[in-house]
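Archive entry. Fields below.
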Amino acid sequence: MSKLRQHKLFSLGLFLVLVVISLCIVSFFYLPQDPNVMNTINRFQSPSKEFLLGTDQFGRDILSRIMISSRYALFIGLVSVFLGAVVGIVIGALAATANGWLETILMRFIDGLMAFPGILLAMMLVAVLGKGLWNAVIAIAIFMIPVFSRLTYSLVLDQKNQLYVKAARSYGASKSRIIFKHILPMILPRLITQFSASIGSAILIESSLSFLGLGVQPPNASWGLMLSESRQYMLTYAYLAVPPGIILMITVLGFNLIGDAWNDSIVSRRMAE
Amino acid sequence: MLSFIVKRLISGLTVLFFISIITFFVLRWMPGDPATLSLGTEGTPEKIAELQEVMGLNLPWYQQYYHWLQDLFSGDWGSSYVFGEDVMTLIIQRLPVTLLLAAVSMVIVIPFAFIIGIMSALFKERWVDYIARSLMQLGDAIPQFWLALIFLVFFASKLGWFPVAGYVGFDNGILASIHSVLLPAIVLAIGQVGPLIRIIRSSMLSSLEQDYMLMTQVNGLPKTLAIVKYALRGASIAPLTIIGMQLANMLAGAILVENIFALPGIGRLLLMTVEQRDLILLQGMLIFVTSAVVLVNILTDICYRLANPMIRFGGNHE
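PREDICTED_STRUCTURE:
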């Protein structure tokens, strides 16, 4: 892929993500209307000067609710991927350095987790832990573990036989020192790439869970929840379903583009070497 | 080859073992014990204790696990609290709807992905490729449930091309059944197409760079013939490897899509199970779905080996 195109896609992704981040930051200082105030006189208002994106079935301002939702989306996305990444990286690194039965057990366990289709694993955990924000975070974090442990596992295996690791070993560096001081910095770019790409899918899972009524609970707002609430009225008031879906897509697209562009730049750098 | 199959089966069984462990423990971690739950309002402390004894809940966990596994293998998957029916029966009742949905969606997605993926590889870095890749990015980012809602409003309600909700059984003819799942199947297909195009494109690109393609040029084979006869063949093996993943994604998508289009399949049953916290049914469905994914993964790995001559004839291409 050409450098220029890579750069363009990265900029586009960054721009989209920045839009959402600024929406989130602004929501802490300014909201056009109170997102939770119900006002039946104002229900189902089409977009107007007062309500830029219209109002929902309770007369709540859709724009304000979208802005508030961005907090949940970014929070859940970042925190769940971070937690999943930490656990996943530890498991992957452990499996790659420990030979024999521990390696087999860890990786088969990860394969087992992987066999649960994404949202199904999250649903199972929500069934056990109960509905709600933190349980959604934990559920998505567990879903993220196999992705990171598999990647770390293969990356560490790849690095293990490199000359610099052999050199470190010959100096008598300990296993943990080799992993943390030598190998981890080398593979960090790939892990960060995965991190960015995973945030997009984490936000998608959050919104799917909320859509099914298993994630963020009313009266709080989440893009998925907003779409779920609009379902009943969609046939008459189709405008209700457009804004939450578009902002959700923009967010996911943004994180995916950044991840892809990073990944491509790493790959093409590798090929150049 | 035989040793590979055996090895693959053993590792598949280990994975299934871990799945059973994960399911067993996660669901026992759930607050409230099954005896109290199944007695409901009729539960007196004596009755609960009695039922706990009968259900073997007083035994140490490994014995409980062992008994549970025994039941699982003997086909006794317990009965659901909510429906009061056998778990196996419930799953088998719902399965045809989901299978039909998945099959129709596959029939849409595979030719589409092959055409786009191959075109995109043949016209690399040209506008066809750019459009294909933009479509892939969009396909990955569009929330499936949102797309389902939009399609429902537009194609079913406004244009009236499809039923708004519900499933038409096989008794009314196969075509009517297919028509009733067509719109949800299209939504599922759009969610699936991204990864498939990506892998077809990249395997086609690497196939085009192989020495045998150079050889066809040297031999003066027309380009189209060379592509159809050799490059395509080389490129059609790699997509096999992600079929298991696609199946898992499709089942996940089915949970959302079936709920929006009110299709009485596995996905809808799953959501009900989670909402009602029907432990026995949930456990049965989890084991069923994950085993299906593992099984398909084993089969595709074996097919991959069989289809790839480089591996089949003992090359060391790993």
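CURATOR_NOTE: The two ends of chain B are 14 Å apart (CA to CA).
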